[in-house]
Amino acid sequence: MENLPEIIRRHLVLMVIWFIPLGVFSQQEFIVYKVKGEPYLKINDSVQSVTKGSVIDEAATLIMKRDDELHYIDSKGDIYELYETGSFNYQALQKRTAFKENTSFMRNL
């Protein structure tokens, strides 16, 4: 029983060592699953068109033009829709409200 504080301390150290990398290495990103029009991503000095499966990460800026439509998914599986024109960085996309579907199919997912 005298070693109980030492055992607890060792377990806590192991837990900290285990969980810190999970937060550090988890990447924040969105995955595009539906596109209408021709939106594009600006990453540093390069420009690329957005297609189904494109990744929008913290370094990207999404450029939406008139009549463009984009649906994207976050790491939790929440779905977002974007119909607005303009430039959107990762933080702006993250602040948007997730799409809520009331169909029985979406409720069962």
Biggest β-sheet strands, sense, barrel: 4 strands, antiparallel
Q: What does the radius of gyration come to?
A: 20 Å
Category from helices, strands and their pairing? alpha+beta
Give the N-to-C terminal Cα separation. Answer: 48 Å
Q: Beta-strand percentage?
A: 25-35%
How many beta-strand elements? 8
List unreliable stretches of 5+ residues.
none
Brief synopsis:
The protein is α+β, with helices and mostly antiparallel strands and 109 residues long. The chain contains 3 helices and 8 strands, in the order H-E-E-E-E-E-E-E-E-H-H.
What characteristics describe this protein?
four-stranded antiparallel beta sheet; elongated; 3 helices; alpha+beta; 28% helix; 109 residues; 34% strand
Please, could you describe this protein's structure?
The chain has a domain at 29-94. The longest helix has 22 residues, at 4-25. It has helices at 4-25, 90-94, 104-107; strands at 29-36, 40-43, 46-49, 55-57, 60-64, 69-73, 79-82, 86-89. It is an alpha+beta fold.
Walk me through the topology.
Blueprint: H1 4-25, E1 29-36, E2 40-43, E3 46-49, E4 55-57, E5 60-64, E6 69-73, E7 79-82, E8 86-89, H2 90-94, H3 104-107
